[in-house]
Amino acid sequence: AELTRDDDGGDGLDARTQFNLPTTGEYRVHVRGYAGGTGRYQLVMRNLTPSTGKLGAGAGWVSADQWASFDNSVPTLSDGAHYRDYRIRLDAGQDVVVHMESDAFDSLLAIYSASDTATALATNDDANGLDSALLFRAPHSGEYLIRATQLGHGDGQYRLRVSRLTPY
Predict the structure, then answer these.
(1) If you ran DSSP here, which 8-state letter would residue 24 be given?
(2) What distance separates the 2 farthest-apart alpha carbons in the chain?
(3) Confidence check: pLDDT of 42 > 80
(4) List of residues 6+ apart from 100 with CB closer than 8 A
(5) Which of these, 40, 94, 147, 161, could form a disulfide with 90 (CB 3.0-4.6 Å)?
(6) Which of 62, 112, 68 is nearest to 87 (CA)?
(7) What confidence tens digit (pLDDT) does each residue in 122-159 have?
(8) Using CA atoms, how far apart are residues 164 and 152, in angstroms rounded to an integer?
């Protein structure tokens, strides 16, 4: 199954894609010229590794990996879906990967600027089955909210992982 594709996302006619692999394993990269074109090319792959530990400090800051649950004590959105907001501080241009997984419900992730929770900067549903994942680059330095929520309604446990990406 194709996981990502690009044609002219790099400079000029060059292709460029950035993708977070959903699981550990073996993957193939297929390279071809547009419309059957041939010639020399260079394939560059950069490994990115997640850093560990906290992305911020103080109450309400999300750690790199945590478990939580939705139940009747958790607030709900206008559609009745449970949610929790996690506050993080990011520098401009900083990349983070956010994963939310649950066996109990269909997860949904959104990232907001802490000063504007009306407009999501990024959202994802079903990146890997019913689990959600986001690769997010902070447009400016400041506080952001990661909203962990669900499609539909349901109680149960979920896992939220946040990793800051740093190049090798």
Answers:
(1) S
(2) 61
(3) no
(4) 107, 108, 109, 131, 132, 133, 148, 158, 159, 160, 161
(5) 94
(6) 62
(7) 999 988 788 999 999 999 999 999 999 998 777 899 99
(8) 30
Q: What CA–CA distance (Å, rounded) separates 53 from 64? A: 6
58-82 residue pLDDT tens: 444 444 677 888 888 888 888 889 9
The structure's pTM equals 0.63
pLDDT at 89 over 60: yes
Angle among Cα 148, 146, 79 to the nearest 5 degrees reads 45
* CA–CA distance, 5 with 34 (Å, rounded to integer): 13
**Cα 81 to chain center, whole Å?**
20
Question: Of how many residues is the chain composed?
Answer: 168
- Structure token pair of residue 64: 């790199």
Other CB atoms within 10 Å distance of the CB of residue 33: 10
- Tell me the chain's radius of gyration from C-alpha atoms: 18
**Paired tokens of 75:** 């607030």
- Written as six digits, the tokens of 59 are 């109450």
